[in-house]
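Suppose a colleague, Dr. K., hands you the sequence of a protein chain of 109 amino acids and asks what its three-dimensional shape might be. Before reaching for any lab equipment, you can write down a predicted structure in token form. Begin with the sequence itself:
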Amino acid sequence: MRPPAGRNGLAVAAMVLGVISLMTSIVFVGGLLGLIGLILAIVGVKTTKRTGTGRGNAITGLVTSAIAIVVSVLLAVFMVWYANNTQECYQPESIQQYKQCVHQQLTGH
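The predicted structure, expressed as tokens, is then:
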């Protein structure tokens, strides 16, 4: 016999936040949304053990939220590294001069 169909609202919210956070992770907003989605996904997975519904949504939210957090952190680390290595190039007279300065700073030539 099949259990009655129902919805796990936390799992659905986790999935939606996970997907949105993944799409916005390149602008750092995704990291915060991913953290909220991750928490909701964990609670949603625990709820699926009791209700039997929404496991796929909760797992999707868990995975997408975790990926969004990782992407946001890696992007933040890259931006700090880039800013640190190119700080001498911040007042160029032209875009060409900026590009040349960045190239010199990053390659050492």
